[in-house]
Amino acid sequence: MSNLQTLQQRLLQAVLADRAPRLRDLCGDNSADTTSRLAIYRNGYRIRLRDALGTEYPGLGLMAGRRFGHLLESYIETHPSGHYNIRWHGAGLAAFLEYGLPWRDKPELADMARLDWAISTAFDATDEPTLSATALVDVPAESWAALRLRSQSHLQILASPYNVDAFRRAADGNKQRPRLRHYDKPRYLLVWRQLLTVRYRLVEADELSALTGATQHETFAQLCERLTEHHDPSNALPRMAALLRQWLDDGLISGWELA
Q1: Are 137 and 191 in contact (CB under 8 A)?
Q2: What value does the mean pLDDT of the chain take?
C-alpha cells in the first residue's frame, strides 16, 4: 500500500471512529488547527448521512417529530455506513427501531420505516415490462385454468396495525401530522411502482390471498380456489376476473405463461 493510500485509510478510520484520534500527518494552519480540520470531516460525514436518511424516510420523520434527529443520530452511531453508496445506509433502520432501545417501545416507528424503505426501493427497482389486458386476448379459453401470472419483482406487501399510510401521504403532501391509529388487526399495504410513480394502497383479505398465490406462481384455477375461502364459489371467478383487471390496470403483472 502506498503512503497516500495509507494516509487515506487512516483518515477514513479517524472520520468513522467513535472518538477522534490524533493524526500526526494532519497539519493545521492559521485558519484551523488539526482538531478543527478533522472535526469538519467528521461532522460533514454525519450530516450527509443524516440528510440522506431524512430524504429516504419522510413518513418516519413526520411520525417521530422532534425525536427524529435523535433517532437518526442513534442509528448513525450504532450502524456506520458499510456501503460505498450512501443511498443504502438506511437499509437496517427498521430493524434498528424494532430491537433498539428506546425505539422498540414504539413499534409504529419500525412499521413506518418499513413502508418508507419499501417505497424507496420500489422507485430504484429495475424496469420490467408491464402486461396489458390485450396481451391475454389470445389465451385459449380451455387454457385459462393453467395460466400463471408473473408479478413485478419490486411488488411488496407490508402488514401493520397502524395507519402508517396516512403518515406517508401527509409527508408527501406536506400536510399536518395525522393522528396515530391502532387497529385490532393488521392492515395490509401493497407497494409497487407504476412507470415512474411509486404507489401504495390497502389490500383486502381476498385480494391478499389471491395476490400471494400469484407471486408464488400458482395457476389461475388455484387463485380462484383461494377466493372460495372468502366468497361463494359461484362468485369466485367473477371476483378473480375483477382483480386481474385491476392488477393489469395498476401495472402489477409483467408477463404470463401456461403451466
Answers
A1: no
A2: 86
Contact present, 254 and 150 (Cβ < 8 Å): yes
Residue 197 CB-density burial (10 A; 0-12 exposed, 13-18 middle, 19+ buried): exposed
Three-state secondary structure of 98-111: HHCCCHHHCHHHHH
Quick one: which of 118, 150, 130 has its CA closest to 195?
Answer: 130
Phi/psi at 178 (nearest 5 deg)?
-75, 170
Which triple of cell numbers denotes residue 4? Answer: 497516500
102 cis-preceded (ω within 30 degrees of 0): yes
Whole-number pLDDT of residue 125 = 81
| pLDDT for 144 | 93
Confidence band of 104 (pLDDT split at 50, 70, 90): very high
Query: Considering just the CA atoms, what is the radius of gyration of the chain in Å?
Result: 24
Question: Tens digits of per-residue pLDDT, 182-193?
Answer: 999 999 999 999
Domain 128-259, CATH among 3.40.190.10, 3.90.930.50, 3.30.2130.10, 3.40.30.10: 3.90.930.50
